[in-house]
Structures are given as structure tokens and as C-alpha cells.
Amino acid sequence: MNNYASARIGILGAGGYAGRELARLVARHPRARIAWATSESDAGRALGDVVSGVDGPALVRAEDAALGAADCVVSCLPHGESAKWMERARGADVRAIDLSADLRVPGEVTPGWAREAVYGLPELHRARIADSRLVANPGCYPTAALLALAPLLRRGLISGPVIVNAASGVTGAGRNAKRELMFAEIAEGFSAYAVGNVHRHLAEMRAQAAGIAGGAAPELVFTPHLLPVKRGILETIYVPLAEPIRDLLQMWMDDYSSEPFVRVMRDRMPALADVVGSNRVAIGVAAVQNVSAPMLTIVATIDNLLKGAAGQAVQNLNLMFGWGETEGLA
Amino acid sequence: MNNYASARIGILGAGGYAGRELARLVARHPRARIAWATSESDAGRALGDVVSGVDGPALVRAEDAALGAADCVVSCLPHGESAKWMERARGADVRAIDLSADLRVPGEVTPGWAREAVYGLPELHRARIADSRLVANPGCYPTAALLALAPLLRRGLISGPVIVNAASGVTGAGRNAKRELMFAEIAEGFSAYAVGNVHRHLAEMRAQAAGIAGGAAPELVFTPHLLPVKRGILETIYVPLAEPIRDLLQMWMDDYSSEPFVRVMRDRMPALADVVGSNRVAIGVAAVQNVSAPMLTIVATIDNLLKGAAGQAVQNLNLMFGWGETEGLA
Amino acid sequence: MNNYASARIGILGAGGYAGRELARLVARHPRARIAWATSESDAGRALGDVVSGVDGPALVRAEDAALGAADCVVSCLPHGESAKWMERARGADVRAIDLSADLRVPGEVTPGWAREAVYGLPELHRARIADSRLVANPGCYPTAALLALAPLLRRGLISGPVIVNAASGVTGAGRNAKRELMFAEIAEGFSAYAVGNVHRHLAEMRAQAAGIAGGAAPELVFTPHLLPVKRGILETIYVPLAEPIRDLLQMWMDDYSSEPFVRVMRDRMPALADVVGSNRVAIGVAAVQNVSAPMLTIVATIDNLLKGAAGQAVQNLNLMFGWGETEGLA
Amino acid sequence: MNNYASARIGILGAGGYAGRELARLVARHPRARIAWATSESDAGRALGDVVSGVDGPALVRAEDAALGAADCVVSCLPHGESAKWMERARGADVRAIDLSADLRVPGEVTPGWAREAVYGLPELHRARIADSRLVANPGCYPTAALLALAPLLRRGLISGPVIVNAASGVTGAGRNAKRELMFAEIAEGFSAYAVGNVHRHLAEMRAQAAGIAGGAAPELVFTPHLLPVKRGILETIYVPLAEPIRDLLQMWMDDYSSEPFVRVMRDRMPALADVVGSNRVAIGVAAVQNVSAPMLTIVATIDNLLKGAAGQAVQNLNLMFGWGETEGLA
Fold first, then answer.
1. Is C36 left (phi over 0), alpha (psi -120 to 50) or beta?
2. Is the pLDDT assigned to residue D109 strictly greater than 80?
3. Which of A253, B318, C299, D60 has the fewest CB atoms within 10 Å around its CB?
4. Interatomic CA distance for residues B35 and B53, integer angstroms
5. A76 annotated active-site
């Protein structure tokens, strides 16, 4: 861990939904400031024209960004485009946080150096993040699912396939113009996608769940849905248990008692309104009645642009620079 | 079955969302007409003031309705208030359709005569509905779930608890003023309710599923959610199978090939936009990849006010009076 | 006027919002049927894949459409692309209705033959439409404004510039993918556009208003706004009067007493919910209090895709073929 | 003006939309803290249960609030209920800010002491607010209209009735359950209300406009509309001018050059998205083309809960206590 009084942040891809949210957070952060920010389509425009209410330098193309003029580069570039910039940041000896999926799942397609990346879920890997120079910021869906399931995974209490039924607001699908994301197509609508357990986030969830479980993890079945809201993810998770659990909430309360961004709900289930605009995850748990084998339903919710993207990136930034974990996020 | 050239319909509770939809459908039906319509809060007002674009008699209080002046009474009254009117209709020797839950699940609290009620899901009980004088119109959530699962239930292919993860538009919660249903609370929101498998519709689903299965049915775990849309239900259903199924869609296509209101999707999953405004149920099926035991995901969607309420009531009406099943619903 | 038992309709541009609405209306019309329908991007696909719930021939490219196989060609093509097809229809001796702006305002840029086009606002030009072979279907904003103002224009009662403050749902902006029309940009938003009285519809409104007034018409100031709804237009119109008017509503009730698609509101102002899904215009009128010179506020509302586009086209079709004016529109 | 290092704030009516927003702002304010907060319906509950993410004392009934334990009482009570509490605060020698309309327009119904209240629009009355002990926080509609019109009013440039066509999100209508504010009634809707220039805010606008103009002010015609959004007001204002104005924006830029919460738009008109979530008013101006007499269109927009209510209250608080005007509002 390193203690810095302040740091200069370079933002790759500041024009998308996560990038704009990140620019807002950094601009208001007491210790960080925007060194430069990139946008291919808006290069040359003032940052404040693209990110309402934020002062900062004019946007530049990524190729024109002075990587070395930042203490940390945060990439909000699309999947597939981000890794090469992370490698350049590494070459420039600059810390980096990648919001894309490129470095999250070490595998055949990931370059060797990418194995240095720490999975940036602070509630699970706080110490390693603080010591790292390269962080793979988690996906939005995995963030909620892993924090919801970690207490059960750690204790080896899950006895069969876990169903993760998830719904996300449309900012999760990015800011490029697509007919299927137009208002007249989304309003008054609702749909499932990647049905059949084939979503890209599945591998990420499985790899991390196995890590938490200390080896073999339960199988996961994941179905995302598209909500007619701007932001927010809510996951309804069905967990078969080896045996019934008493004092249901106690495990979550024990595990998360000192976590500033985890709220375990005692009296009711969480809803989007409990988290949108904040970096929190909110979690509720209920035993399933009227079935013969023990089963839990967990409801977990986050703001996909904050705890699911830019907020979590700032939380990681705070850890990497030795700052208070909640600075700029309260 | 009886053949009538036309029929006079009495509507109990025409001021709620289902009641207004029913009034619209009956007003446009080629063979039915509104004999009278009731509303406790709007008695005395013209029907057209309450149901935009519909001509008809002034609204009356239920106590003032001439039951015998209708050939069929359709009740859109709330659960708990409807049964007594169904009994009066029976006493007046008038056919009746009940949209409330009062007569759907024969049980301790249901009066003896209510066992005469036929469960009004035409795709399952067409002949019995045509011969009946009293129909219990199905709940919105059970309609979608039962039509989605029937091909599997009939063939005994389900091997474990079925997860029914459902989401509904707000008209499903009724038209009485409640703070939690106000625009500023619902817009940009999403939430689960009755978490833990405790929703009233569960008993109805279980009873009907057992009937289709010819006895013991698989266990059901049902979680409803509240969507920020006016109308529409989408259910994502996870079904563990005894063994893998080839030609996945074939069973649904075989069972529903002649059904005018069932659409089996070949190329993609259905979404709300495929059904809102119509009396159709749309069903898609996918094998779950990346798990060891065979499992299906089914997505089923209906308009909660049409196939889930008033539209299905008209479909039942058509059967009860010997009319074409799609009359007034195309 | 000609009496046909039925007619074959060709639809140019059936994939946009107005085109799809038109396809739905024609498919359900008792006397019309779709001869062919075109879409450049979806040519080759079944019509029902693009227009949910509508059976019909596979979509073709406009160049491949057999103009002469239709009794009437209806164009839902964009402004600037439509006129040439109207000319071809004329060459093929086929009736035609143009939903674009191309033929609405005779002017320098309009070809000579286009002066044959009748402005298709039935409440103003019913007899001429019935006799015509070429109809320019009015713009959505002008339809509402002209029907609201006609009683005053006819009687010469307006004494100064009329302010037309209008708001439209997003389907008015078309179905091509644009970032500014994406859900995350529109939801929870509201904005004015073409501020400063520079919108294209102004010339159309002025020309028609002058026609109704029998010469010089009052000046118009028109500001459109973009609403976060799918469909519907509401205009709030401020009219300075030469002198106060008694029995305010009487003029509108007199002028529109036999109009099937005009609803003059007696007790309250109309809202989008009074017209969306119908071919009606709803109009309310109030004297402006608390000012020294006499002034009226008129509120007028239509469904931009029906009375503002496809519904009005069918109304014109009914007139052109001698059918009942409300056929297929009830 | 008094300089305090910090102050204790009492909030009357913390459960409504403005009250909750105020509680959030005060909780995060570097110099203010919540001394107590009242809610009749939620008394006894933790503040954080009612205002998500805010720590603070349990809610009490207004009768049980220790007025004297606050340095400033801020009332978010409804119109008609607030004045008596302002009088009690005055009796307890405590500063007070009233968000209701009760003290805004001195008149027959206002008690004599209420004339001491300063109209809390800082951009107009900064010095007087700083010296006052009782502030009448402006209405949301008047805030936007007055800031838009002040440069013209001051210079006496307006030559006739000004049309203020306004639209507001539903939080402006309060948090009490009403059928007409339910999601299913508001979504996909839009409507005008108080048509005919009869809204309560008119008197407030007229009185203040006259004050700015130094006597007689132009007549105002005001029509509010209800938008299907949670928050935000946008006003489109039509101003007849005595003569054309060159360098249109210059007056607004001159008058507001040092105002932290006024944004004059140079290149485009403002929209809700420019202000929602901030305490800013954004203003755009355009000359009206295609009319004979000179006229302007002004578009002004605010967040009705911030600059239109709680944010402006904090701005006033900052002035009253000698703090930086933007503290807690950045």
C-alpha cells in the first residue's frame, strides 16, 4: 500500500455511461483529480459539455493521452478494446483499473501479464487490491451475486445449482445508439436475454465463486433481464441448502458488519430505490416456505454504474492509494 | 353448451383496471352488450366518464344491479368480496364468471356450492367451461405459469422444484390509491415481494399443476416482482428435468398447434411487447447450458389485464355461449 | 367519390412507427387488405416478424413493389424520399396517400403535379378528399392545432399572434437509432426543440390556417417539446381575441357536432390518456383569467401515430373509397 | 449577517419529497446537522428508515419538537399548516425558513408578523436574506420564471402579456397517496392543469415581478402541466418586446455572471437533464422568427426539489448563517 496525498487520474472512455459517472466521482473526490479524459467521438470538446456539471480538461483521443501524466489510468473502454491500454499503462509504470471484462477471467485469450490483475471486489480482496498496481474491476452482475452468496460459499452450505435471476437498467447496455435501446422500444417493456445460461458474466461469477468456496463451487444458472429503468440491478437468487439455517441473517451480518458499502436488510427486502445513486449493495434473505428441501431466496441490489462500475472503481482507487475507503463516495 | 345469438353482460366492479378493460371488450364485442355495470365510488356517473371511449348505461351500486337482467354476470370485485355476488347470481339462475381469487381453490374457506366453479383456463378445460354456468377466471401469474409448464407436467418430465420468477406491471396491484404505487415511487424502481414462496397465487398454481400432472405435481417456488410498467407479466421459469429433451419446442408446438391465443416462439424469447394489448400468451424455451443436470428455462409472457384477466374472461364467455372463441378478442 | 367493396393497399415504408401502425390498421380493416408492404432494411422478412400480430406478405424493397397491384399506395417514407413514389403511383394510375411532408405545402420545391394533392384533414376538406386521387396526409402537430383553431379562424375572432406550445411522444421522431432518443437519455427528461419558431410544420400550419380564415391568418408561434412517452401529442394554445366570447364551448360544439373523431370536453381539459390508442382529437377551451385583454387557452390532444398519421390516413382512405368514415377505426 | 461555525437544523415535515431532500442535504452539509425532524405519520421511526442513507434522530411529531433546540427551523409542511409553526419559531426566537406558500404573498389572509418574511430568492434578495430571521422560500414555478425574466423586467423591456408555459415532475404534487398520481395513471401521460390562469403561484409571480420591475409589471399567463417524470421543471416563456434586442444573451450573462447557481446556455436550449440533481437554474434565450412584432422565447429549467425547494432553502440557510453560499450544494 502506498500513501499519497493526492493523485492524478486518467480516464479512458469518458463519454459512456460508466465513464461519465467516473468523471463525476473523480471531479468531486477530495484527493483525486482528472489529469486527462478520452473520447473518440467527442475529442476536442470540453469535458463539461459531455459530463454535465464537471469541469476538466478538453477530451482527447486515447492515442493522444499522456499515460504517464496520470498516477492511475482507469479504463471505461469496451470489452476487447481495453486490454491493450492496460498493457501500455503497465509499460508506462502507471497504476491501472480496468472496468472492462478483459482482465477479469484469466484464460486462454488473456495475455500472460494480465494474470497480475487483482479482482477488484474490496469486500473479498481488500488487502490484495491495496497492494496491487493493476485491478480488474468486477462486472455489475457478478458484484451483486458474489456479495450475496459469499457467506454461504465460504461456509460450504450450498447443495445444488444456484439460480441467479437478474434484471438491469439500460445503462448497463452502453451508450452507443441501438434501435432496441430506444425509448419507444424499452418503455413499458421487459425482456430476458442470454437465456440458457450463456451470458459472458457467467465465467467470471463461476471463477470467483470457486475462489471464495476454496475450490469447487456450486453450479450457477444466470439469466439477465432488461428493465425499463436507467440504472440499477436487482438479483433474485435461489439457493438449495444442504440443511436448514437458523438465524438466517446472522451470517451476512457477521461477514459484513464492518463493511461501509454493504447493507443487510433486517425487516424487508431491498429494492432499487435503496441503492440507486449510492455505492452500496443491499442484501435481503428469506427461507423458502412450502417446499420440502431447504432453500433460500436472496435479493441483492446495486447501482450498476456505481457499485457495479465507477463507484467500485473509486473504492479500489482509495485502497490502492491508501486513502479512506469511502472518500469521494459518501 | 348453449348457442345464443347475443347476450347481456352485467359487470360488477367496472371501475378498476380489469373492470374497465372488460367494459371496453364487451362494448366492442359483436355479440355481447353491457346490461349494467357497477362501481361503488362512481355510481351515478356515465360509464363513458369512467371508461374512456365506451358508451353504456350509468354506473350503479352493486346492491342496485338487476342481476336477473343479465345473461351473464362477470365480477371484477376484489378478493373476499366477490363470492357472495357469485352466490346471488347462482340464486338468480344467471351464468357467472369470477375474476377474483374467491372460487379458484376449493378449500376449507370456500362454500360448498363454489365447487361447481370450473377453472377458466380454456387451453386446459375448454369443454368443461363450455358446459358450465360458473367459471373461476384464473389468476394472472398462474395463467402464464400453467400454460408454460403444461406440456412438461402432462408428460411427467419434471424432476424437482420449479422456480417461477415473475414480474408484473402495476395494474396488477389494483386501482386504489396507495403511496407505494405512486409514480414517484415506482418509476425507475424494481422490487420483489412475497419473497419466500408465500404469495396467494401459489396454492392456485399447485392445485392446477397437480391436476394437469394427474396427481402429484412438482414443487413450485414463486417470487413475484413489481415492474415500472403499466401492464404485462413476464415469467422466467427454471425446470429441472429427469432427462434431456430433444427437439425442445416440439412438445409446446404439438400441444398448442390449434390454440388461437398461444404463440410458441421459434427464434427468440418473447418479451412484453409481444403480448401487451392482446389476449395471447407467448412462450419460449431454452435448454440450460453449462450445468451438469438437465434443466430448462422457459419464458412466458401475457398482458395481465387481458389473458391474465378481462381477455380470458371474454374467452370464457365465448365458450359459455357457444360463440367463436376469438370473437371480440382479435 | 367511388364505391368499392374492398381495396388492395400498398404500404411504402412499413417498418417505421407510422408504417407499422398503418399495417395494423389495414390488416384489421373490414374492407382493405395489404397488397404489399416495403422496408429497405427488413426486405425478405415476414410482415408479422416486423409488425407483431399482423399477417401479410413478405416485405419487399420499394423498387420491387408492384405499384399497379394496389388500388391505393400509402407512403410512410421519410420526408424528401416520398414524393418520387407519389409521382410513380400517379403514373401507374393508382390512388395515393402521402404521410410525409413532401406534398403538404405547395411551394417552390414542390413539383407541379403535386398541386393536385388535397390536404387530408377530413374535418376541413371532406368532400375534396372523397373526390381526390392524391392526398397529402397532415402533419401531427398541424392536425391538432388546426382542429383546435378552426372555429376561431372561420369566424375571424383572433386578434394577434397565437402561441402553440406543443409536446410529443418520441415515436414522432422516427424509428432510426439515435443516441438522443435512447431510453437512458429520454426517461426522466423533457426538452424543447426548434425554439424560436423555426420548425418545419410552421409553414404547413400557416398555409392551412390562412385557408380556413379565408385569406390572411393570424401569426403563429410554435414550440415543440419532446415528452418521455411513446406516443401522444398535447398542445396548449394561447389565443388573443378581438373581444370576449360568451358560451365559450358553443362554437366548437356547433362546428364538430357531427364529427365522429372530434371530442369537445365540457367539464375538464383533455389529456393524453383521452386519445392514445384512438383516432380522436380531444379539445378543451378556457378563458384566461387575470389579464386585461381577452384571451383563450385551448388544449388539444391526439395520438400522433393515429389521428396524427396512420389513423388519419385510414380515415382518408375510407373517404376516397366511399366507405364509412369510421370503418376500421372504431 | 451572523457567522456561525455550525448550526442545528430542525425540519418540520421530513417525510414528504421536499422534506426528505432537505434531510439529505442537511445530513451532508459540512456545517449543519439535523437537530430534530418531524413526521406525523412516521413519528417514532428512525430517520434513516424514511430517508434512505441518512442517519439522524428518530422522527417526532411536530408538537413534540423542541423548537428552541434548533438554530434554524425549516418547514416543509403543507400550505395552510406551516404559518403557525413559523409564528412559534418566531416566538422561540429561532431563525426559520418556510417552504410552504404561506408567507410568500403578503395579503389579507397573511398575519401581520409575516410581513417580516424575506422572499428567499438569493439571486434577487441576497443581502436582505442574509440579514433576515424569517425567509419565505419561493415556489418552484416562480423560481424558474422570475430568474428567467428578471433581466427583462429590470430593464423594462417587456411590452405585453408574458406566457409562462410550464411542466413539472410529479414530486411537485406531494407524497400523499392520490389515485391520479399513481404510476398507471401518470406513465405515458401528460396533462395541463389550472388552465385559464388560475394557479396559486400566479399571485406570487406577479408580486415579485412587479418588485423587480420597480412597480407595474407586465401581465402573466401561467399554465402548468404534469410530466411523467419524478422531478424537474421546464418553463417555455413567450415575451413580447417593445423593440428587438441585439446580443440576446448578453443581459442574462451580465446579470448572472457571478451567480454560482445560474447557468446561461450559449449553444443550445437547456433540458431537464442539465439540472436534475443540482441546485442550478439553466436558462436559454431565442428570438422568435417569422413574426412581425419582436418576441423572445426563454427556456428555463430547475430541479423542483432542489432549486425549487430544498436546495434553495439550504442556499438561504448558508446566507443566513454567513457561510459560503454553495456549501453543501456542490
1. beta
2. no
3. A253
4. 17
5. no
User: Do the Cβ atoms of A228 and C187 come within 8 Å?
Assistant: yes
* Closest by Cβ to A181, choosing from C17, C171, C183: C183
The reply to whether D21 and D119 lie within a common domain is: yes
Name chain A contacts of D273, Cβ cutoff 8 Å. Answer: 52
Angstrom distance (rounded) from CA C36 to CA C38: 7
Residue A170 contacts residue C168 (beta carbons within 8 Å): no
- Within 8 A of C165 by CB-CB distance, chain D residues are 163, 165, 236
pLDDT of residue C330: 79
CB C52 to CB B274 under 8 A?
yes
What's the gap in Å between the CA of C229 and the closest CA on chain B? 12
- Of C202, C236, C272, nearest to D165 by CB-CB distance is C236
Answer for the pair C206, C217: CB distance below 8 angstroms, yes or no: yes
Neighboring chains of D (3 or more beta-carbon pairs < 8 A): A, B, C
What's the mean pLDDT in D147-166?
Answer: 97
Question: Can you say whether residue A233 is alpha, beta or left, with left for phi > 0 and alpha for psi between -120 and 50 degrees?
Answer: beta
DSSP class of residue A182 equals B
Query: Residue D328 falls within a domain, yes or no?
Result: no
Q: What residues of chain A lie within 8 A of the CB of B292, using their CB?
A: 219
CB contact under 8 A, D53 and A273: no
Per-residue pLDDT tens digits of chain B, which is 330 residues long: 467 899 999 999 999 999 999 999 999 999 999 999 999 999 999 999 889 888 889 999 999 999 999 999 999 999 999 999 999 999 999 999 999 999 999 775 677 888 899 999 999 999 999 999 999 999 999 999 999 999 999 999 999 999 999 999 999 999 999 999 999 999 999 999 999 999 888 999 999 999 999 988 899 999 999 999 999 999 999 999 999 999 999 999 999 999 999 999 999 999 999 999 999 999 999 999 999 999 999 999 999 999 999 999 999 999 999 999 999 997
DSSP string, A229-279: SSS-EEEEEEEEBSS--SSTTHHHHHHHTT-TTEEE-SSS---GGGTTTSS
- Are residue B79 and residue B198 in the same domain, yes or no? no
Contact A238 B225 (CB under 8 A): no
Q: B25, B140, B163, B234: which is the annotated catalytic residue?
A: B140
Nearest to A181 among C182, C228, C231 (CB): C182
Same domain as A100, residue A35: yes
**Phi and psi at residue D37, to the nearest 5°:** -145, 140
pTM of the model: 0.96
Q: Which domain holds residue A60?
A: 7-137+309-320
The amino acid present at A258, given as its one-letter code, is S
Q: Is B228 exposed, middle or buried (0-12, 13-18, 19+ CB in 10 A)?
A: buried
- A46, three cell numbers: 470540453
Q: What is the pLDDT of residues C114-147, one digit of tens each?
A: 889 999 999 999 999 999 999 999 999 999 999 9
Q: With 0-12 CB in 10 A as exposed, 13-18 as middle and 19+ as buried, what is D78?
A: middle
* Catalytic residue annotation of C: 140
| The predicted structure's pLDDT at residue C324 | 96
pLDDT in tens, C251-303: 999 999 999 999 999 999 999 999 999 999 999 999 999 999 999 999 999 99
**pLDDT averaged over every residue in chain D:** 95
Q: Looking at the structure, do residues D71 and D110 belong to the same domain, yes or no? A: yes
C73: CATH? 3.40.50.720
Measured distance CA(D307)–CA(D232) in Å, rounded: 10
Q: Quote the number of domains for chain C.
A: 2
Q: Determine the distance in angstroms separating the CA of B7 from the nearest CA of chain A, rounded to an integer.
A: 35
What's the gap in Å between the CA of C299 and the closest CA on chain D? Answer: 8
- Closest-CA residue of B relative to D230 is B184
User: In Å, how far is B290's CA from the nearest CA of chain A?
Assistant: 7
